[in-house]
Amino acid sequence: MKIDFLFTFRISRIHLTSRLKQTIVAALGVTFGIGTYIILMSFMTGLNGILDDLILNRTPHVHLFNETKQSQYQPIVLHKDFQYKINFVSSVKPSDAPIKIKNAIPMIQMLEQDDNVKAVTPQYTAKVFYLAGSTQLNGLIKGVDINKEVKHYNLNSYISQGDYRDLKPGTNTIILGKGIAKKLSLELYDKITVNAGNNNIALKIVGFYESGMSDVDNVQSYASIETAQRIGGVTNNYITDINIKLYKKELAPYMADRLEKQFSISAVDINEANAQFDTGTGIRNLISYAVSITLLIVAGFGIYNILNMFIYEKMDDIAILKATGFSGKDVQRIFILQAMLIGLVGGILGLILGYGVSYLISISPFETEAMPNLKTFPVNFNPMFYVGGMAFALVSTFFAGYLPARKAKNIDPVEIIRGK
Amino acid sequence: MILETKNINKYFRKPVKFHALKDINISIEKGEFVSVMGKSGCGKSTLLYILSTMDTDYDGELFLDNQLITDKTNEELAKLRNELIGFVFQFHYLLPEFTVLDNVMLPAEKLGKKSKEEIRIDGMEKLRLLGIENQAHKKANLLSGGQKQRVSIARALINNPKIIMGDEPTGNLDSKNADNVFDIFKELNTSQDLSLLIVTHDSDFAEKTDRTITMEDGRILS
Prior knowledge:
The structure holds two protein chains of two kinds.
Chain A: H1 5-18, H2 20-56, E1 62-65, H3 75-78, H4 104-113, E2 117-132, E3 135-144, H5 146-153, E4 159-162, E5 173-177, H6 178-183, E6 191-196, E7 199-209, H7 214-217, E8 220-224, H8 225-232, E9 241-246, H9 252-263, E10 266-269, H10 270-273, H11 275-313, H12 315-323, H13 328-363, H14 383-410, H15 413-419
Helix pairs in contact in A: 1-13, 2-11, 2-13, 2-14, 11-13, 11-14, 12-15, 13-14
Chain B: E1 3-12, E2 18-24, E3 27-28, E4 33-38, H1 44-51, E5 59-64, E6 67-68, H2 74-84, E7 85-88, H3 100-111, H4 116-129, H5 145-157, E8 163-167, H6 175-192, E9 195-199, H7 203-207, E10 211-216, E11 219-220
Parallel strand pairs in B: 4-9, 4-10, 7-8, 8-9
Antiparallel strand pairs in B: 1-2, 1-3, 1-5, 5-6, 10-11
Helix pairs in contact in B: 3-4, 3-5, 4-5
């Protein structure tokens, strides 16, 4: 017959509270295991999230551009006299084709119709000199649709001063790389002269761009695509890059492959561009899981030990319970419940500990050049870690309690009662 | 017939094979007060643990309350033990961290036929019957030996069993307490018509019972 849960609970509770010190030690093992798991996972994934933002969110899923390369076919191939010969052409130079994407505007329109595509952002990159007196700095001005860049690539979080909305098409405005501004000692709303080829154009600085990578910040600025095209002296259908953001990142390699064939253009997908980055994230996650699971297993062994000891101490109790009509299963249930109570209490304390320490980490100041908009350590307060931690606490204590409890189940009361 | 055995044989296999009980045939009527006497190692305790259903490793047949219980599962036996048999040991065997009342209530809570409140009232009544109701809320390990034995008798009575079995229940008590325990048993026997089967070394105790079963070398002599 099944015994009432509350009744089992009461027996377990009295057993546990009568050995309060050991119970606390066992529960603390779980607490530290679960707490560390929560802290590690929150911190690690928080950090990964920031790095994802830093790299992946800024990277288009598919990037289309014309690569400078040799022509695939040399003219001699087309001549029928040399059709069945083996031809050697030495010193092949790259073809002189412009980096302009052919038929960019219809291509963009076509891509925007595609169901997989979330956003298409055209860019024109002008190579310029930034001028200040006699000083000339090499640089790039990326002509972009600023609203789309902010919306889909979080450009806003890298604009350290000024407002991106001031970068209107048709005005001579620029968001200047922070490194350039430092070198030329320019302030917000100052004017800067840029030169591309023959014409000098004066631009008003409406913001500073600070990516955290100084090689970029020393070179790159943003302007509206029209402004950039005017600086470069090209027509307004001259597009050098098309960035595509998809709804599903996983489709990127397939899309890149397709577009490459369809438009005979170079296409790089995000996995190709950031392969080492993904590996890094994966390994960091693996390490966090390995460490936390090890901790929990150690806690599990602690519980196993303490329960084993409990059962040796409680032999008489077990014999009495059995003699007065408790079945082996009842006794087993009592001891498994004890283990799981330790898991429950230890687990809850672990969640509190984990949350507390994670919170302390999340308000600790952390400033780094690499991430200008980060003021404190990044921590991910994902509730799934807490659910998972609690589940693991209960599952591991169940198994830690199972073996000692089975031993208790199989104890023969006659041996104990007669053994005295 | 409360208890009956047919040709019970018991072997110990370790360390060497040993024939501990030989063709035991006994029966106990309702309301009978029976004692079992014999030298150490004659098998009387072994017999008691078989009769109590705790030891199931034997040959032969055991009837409890006219019901064949040999070959029942451990779960079923635990239930029968809970309902039909009250147990009193030589060593008092209470749960030390539980209160006296909790100890008495445990088998009834396991049985689960009454509400907790009813069980509490029953438990107090049994304690009163044994004259220790004023100790009800003390921890069991704070009681004296004689008091503990009375608590374990109260516990044995809580489910109103058909039979009380005792393994030298007075063996660890001084003569005054031993007499006391005997008086309690006798009182239960006469007033409630309860059957008792008590294994004892104490010949004074045995003489006062209705019938004494004497054992030697695993056999019943008389």
